[in-house]
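Students often ask why we bother predicting the structure of a whole assembly rather than each chain alone. The short answer is interfaces. A chain on its own may look different once its partners are present, and contacts between molecules only exist in the joint model. In this exercise we take two input lines together and write out one structure for the complete complex. Read the inputs first and try to guess which parts will touch.
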Amino acid sequence: MSQQYPALLVIVPLLSALVISAAVWINKRLCFPIAVAALGVAAYSSIGLLLRVLDEGVIVYKLGGWDPPMGIAYYVDHLNGLVLVVVSIVALLNLIASKKSIELELADKTAPFYALYVLQVTGLLGIVVTGDAFNLYVLLEITALSGYAMLAMGKDRAQLSTLNYLYMGTIGACFYLLGVGYLYIVTGSLNMVDIARILPDLYQSKAVIGAFIICLVGVWVKMAFFPLHAWLPNAYTHGPSAASSLIAPLVTKVMIYVMIRLILTVFTPEFAFNILAISEPIVWLACLAIVMGAILALAERNLKKMLTYVIVAEVGYMVGGAWLGNRAGMTGAILHIMNDALMTLCAFLVVSNIAYKLKGYAFDDLKGLVRKMPFTMGAFVIAALSIIGVPPTCGFFSKWYLISGAIQAGQYAFMVALLFSSLVNVVLFFRVIEIAYYEPFSDHHGHDHHPEPMDEAPLSMLVPLFIVAAGLVVVGLYTGDIVNHIIEFAIPKAIM
Amino acid sequence: MGDLIQIVVAKYNYWIYITLMMIGLYAMIAKNNLVKKIVGMNIFQTAIILFYVSTGAKRGATIPILEHGHGAASHVFHAVDYINPLPHVLMLTAIVVSVATLGVALALAIKIYNRHNTLEEDEILAQIREK
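Now the answer. The structure tokens for the assembled complex follow.
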């Protein structure tokens, strides 16, 4: 059984999407348990895989028994073992937490939503586990299409902002496909390991350099790296809460993983950092992304939209960290994939709890919220501390690695940008906390200051939120183990 | 000048796909009508499909189907005589993806039209600003 984990990871959610679509004809209430079971199997397999990788090293799984490079192979190593666990657990927790909010916001569309939800997770897990460049493109589009459909279920402007996301997402995926096409012309192979074996003799070829740059730009569009970020804030803000809190933590992070996979496996670090000599401008771009993300977030008066700009800044952290070209920076970037997924999930779950009770998340709606929803706001404070980077929450440790990487590489601008963004985050989050804790509750009717009775979100939303908030601290405390036992092996020896 | 023409003619498939891609990109950026943008997006995707298909082609080669399929093991294959089928097969998948994307995009356009009664982007944005 454990031999088949890599296949189960993708096939179980994929088939369950079909089963959910069929189950709705029998009984609508069957859909949620099927989705939970499917994601549970995926989470179980991914944890099993990570444990096996820790024991045995890289696992190669040949789909249908066809040998690579002819057949499609799934490769699981320390890097994607970790990302798989993060993706499957975040998706599962968010699904359980979002049940009530899905029923409230999407009353008659719950069944299609669950089907799309597991389909999206299928795509994300597939992207992470696959070892085939073209297979990755197909899964990229599965993720994107199910994401468009989920985000477009939102109210008001959701369809228009999703259409803009669709244009940009398609351009991004097409660029990636084009880059893969050039790689195929040059190497005659689509298998990542095979491409990596053939490429070293061709590193001077203009087609290879072009392929790398085109793939990179495509992935950047998909991850909303700063000048290409314009689609993200509106699409994520207007989508339904459950969709945003799945897509915001995972999609950008998985795209960062794809970028790191391109740098580390398909092309070698030697090629990316030494032969191309583009790491310096990219780190500068990352600085710009961090600073602009912070400033744009500062201008927002809406909690959810503010968080989307925080994501834009966080993408800058990870791109910059990966392109510093040293071990500390890469460690920081990989660690931040995990930490940022958890932090963003925590923050977006808080937003979905608020949306469940208040029907709005502009700053004016949050006045005196702590008396109404003390537990939700407590979790928000932990998420805020982690995004700011206060020890012992996990956000501190990845930022620590990123900053020490910046110092080692002599990229002081990146260090300054990181510190600047931390300071802006302090302002951003303490402004929200101040409104929620110290301003009197307003019910839009008058100036009466009667104490608001407590009216928390239901327990099924609170418990997953607490698990994530506790996870932020626990992951922070175990950072040393995660780095020494997993991430250390994920980075090739060539990176010092 | 002669050199330039030679470069263009020798690699004409690349020039065609780049031109198509830029037409699509131009439509996506510059057009105001949502459906025109979506058509531009489809041209963009088609350009890349044509690029892949053209890379599989070979002069003087035939389609990769074995005549006398029975007992094929006894025949000698000359891979040179056949065009490369792999990019074409890949593009079957890419065509499916592009059709699906087009479908989702048009469905969104219908939703937007029902809400705003127009498909011109500036008018929609003006309506949103008024609210």
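Check your guess against this: The two ends of chain A are 38 Å apart (CA to CA).
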